[in-house]
Amino acid sequence: MLPVVALVGRPNVGKSTLYNSLTKSRDAIVSNMPGVTRDRLFGVCRRGDRPFMVVDTAGLTENEDVLAKGMSAQSWQAISESDLVCLVVDARDGLNPDDTEIALRIRAMGKQMLLIVNKMDGLEESNARAEFSRLGIATTLLISAAHNQGIADLVEHLEGALPPAPEEPEVDPSVIKIAILGRPNVGKSTLVNRLLGEERVLAMDLPGTTRDAVRIPLERDGKHYVLIDTAGIRRKARVGEGVEKFSVIKALQAAEEAHVVVLILDAQQGFADQDAHLLGEIVSLGRGLVLAINKWDGLSVRERTQVTQRLDWGLGFVNFAKRLPISALHGSGLGELMKAVNKAHHAATREFSASDLTKAINEAFEKHQPPLVRGRVAKMRYAHQGGRNPPRVIIHGNRLASLPDAYKRYLENSLRDRFKLVGTPLVLEFRDAAANPFAAKVNVLTDRQVAKKRRLIRHVKGR
Predict the structure, then answer these.
(1) What is the spatial distance between Cα 210 and Cα 188, in angstroms, rounded to a whole number?
(2) Of 122, 250, 111, which is closest to residue 184 (Cα–Cα)?
(3) Burial annotation 44-60 (CB, 10 A radius, 16+ → b, else e)
(4) Are 187 and 328 spatial neighbours (Cβ–Cβ below 8 Å)?
(5) Could you list the mean pLDDT of each consecutive 10-residue stretch along the chain, which spans 463 residues?
(6) Phi, psi (deg, nearest 5) at residue 289
(7) Other CB atoms within 10 Å distance of the CB of residue 308
């Protein structure tokens, strides 16, 4: 399970800039105007040896309007769900009374806390440390998120402060873990119940009926699976509390644990921004992927055509994933869905020999050569497998840095077609052949060699 780090603090202290730097993305809107971030953003930091989830929160403020209260409530919810809290403060503003109040409240919650002093570019470090030491937080890191200063040290400190990774229980390698993901009320629990043949999880026509992920063993057609439903059984007495937001944290943690992710899309609601964000994270995790288009049976022929066109446009970046229309309520399409899961798992964990991969890239090169760069063409010598789930293919050769992205996509599609890789991302890594280690070394002649060279020159001139 990915540990969770929450970035909290007053408005406009640089939380979103830091979030973008840690996740290497531009998901968070950055502005000098405070209060731009109004909801939680979730991403994964992979800058160090241990990936972890980063949560960007709205600024905590004492403003009493309804919107500000809702934003603060979301931030405190993120703090309660996190393993580690980063209190971000503004070095240029100095210590603010609100900073002190936020630190006291976090400490009262019993959460482990780091102090991040941002916007340190051009400022004296000793002065900043002295001023913010009054907060009484043991670990203080000075950074400038906008200029990417101190981020590497920050990541190292975060990895060291996170709780140790739990020991993985011994699991039968033949068991396939399937994470069922999707937006609220798309039919996740209904699908799980239909696959199990019984009402094991609570399914209601109400978004946010579920909270924690539940893991349920399943045996189907002689194969063993573990279904991870990203929302558990909620107590009946609390179902009437209003609509809860879909927990992206639980979804990404489930995807990290699973071998194959089944993302359910509502055919009647279409493809939303939240689906795109979740898909991007699933692909970056490298998990096998199957897209289940639920509630398909309730559409007319014209509506189905329109939905298909919209999905073709929105899902172009995951064209490797099998897309299947299903009805979780009536059970149609579930047989094909499980076949697609098995194929995705097989493709993600498949082993390739170096000879087969080398032959495949050579055939692709002969069919279509890359463009010339400065009159020379890149050469691919050999390839071998560098990992599984997702498959990683390492290609060695000369001048591979000059290969355009279009040609790399051509190679990826060629390997997919050759080995019938469906439902899994494919990672290609290009390595140029090592340069001559003696190319820059000057060959210094010995005295004997110099004398011999002079004798040879005199002999040639004498002729």
Answers:
(1) 10
(2) 250
(3) bbebbeebbbbbbbbbb
(4) yes
(5) 87 89 72 50 84 85 54 77 92 91 92 93 89 91 92 92 71 82 84 76 42 74 85 38 50 85 88 80 88 88 88 86 91 92 93 94 92 85 91 92 91 94 93 62 75 81 67
(6) -140, 135
(7) 14
Residues 6+ apart with CB under 8 A from 104: none
**Type of residue found at 10:** R
Torsion angle of C-alpha atoms 123, 124, 130, 134, degrees rounded to 10: 10
- The secondary structure of 185-213 as a DSSP string is TSSHHHHHHHHHTS--S---SSTT---S-
Residue ranges and CATH numbers for the domains of the chain are 4-161 (3.40.50.300), 176-347 (3.40.50.300), 350-463 (3.30.300.20)
Angle at 207 between CA 202 and CA 209, to 5 degrees: 30
Q: In which residue are the tokens 């640089």 written?
A: 14
Q: For the whole model, what pTM was predicted? A: 0.67
